[in-house]
Amino acid sequence: MKRLVIVILFSLLIVGIAAGSAYLYSEHKENEMAVFHYAAVEVLKSYDESEPLFHGGTRYDFGQGRYVVIVKNQHGKEYTYEVLINDDRSLFEIHDLTSYFPGS
């Protein structure tokens, strides 16, 4: 009986960890899509880009809570932005870092 209770509790712990991990992963992916959207809109406004834009990569800075997003056009031109969003995924702050990277 004692062994059965331990197995059940351990199983619940594993299921809880898996569910929590899946939730955090989906939140992170939704945040990445939101910051890409904000960066792509900023590229369209600032650089008058007429070609389709693609996601070139995202880096999250845990210490500052900022995302660095690379937006690419069809010819490989890269635009780099630092984006900070609120808890509800609304835009809080955005900075153009394109000129700081020589390859951009």
Layout of helices and strands, plus pairs?
Layout: H1 2-47, E1 54-61, E2 66-72, E3 78-85, E4 91-96
Antiparallel strand pairs: 1-2, 2-3, 3-4
Shape verdict: elongated
Number of extended strands:
4
Bin the helical content: 40-55%
Query: Largest sheet, if any?
Result: 4 strands, antiparallel
Strand order, biggest sheet?
Answer: 1-2-3-4
Average pLDDT, rounded to a whole number, is: 88
Question: End-to-end span in angstroms?
Answer: 64 Å
Strand-pairing-aware structural class: alpha+beta
Strand content: 25-35%
Low-confidence stretches: none
Describe this structure in words.
The protein is built from one helix and four strands; from the N terminus they run αββββ. By secondary structure, the protein is of the alpha+beta class. Strands 1-2-3-4 form a four-stranded antiparallel sheet, covered by helices on one side. The longest helix is centred in the N-terminal third of the chain and has 46 residues, at 2-47. It is elongated and about 70 Å long.
Summarize the structure.
The chain has 104 residues and is of the alpha+beta class. Helix content is 44%, strand content 28%. The protein contains 1 helix and 4 strands.
List keywords for this structure.
elongated; 1 helix; 44% helix; alpha+beta; 104 residues; 4-stranded antiparallel beta sheet; 28% strand
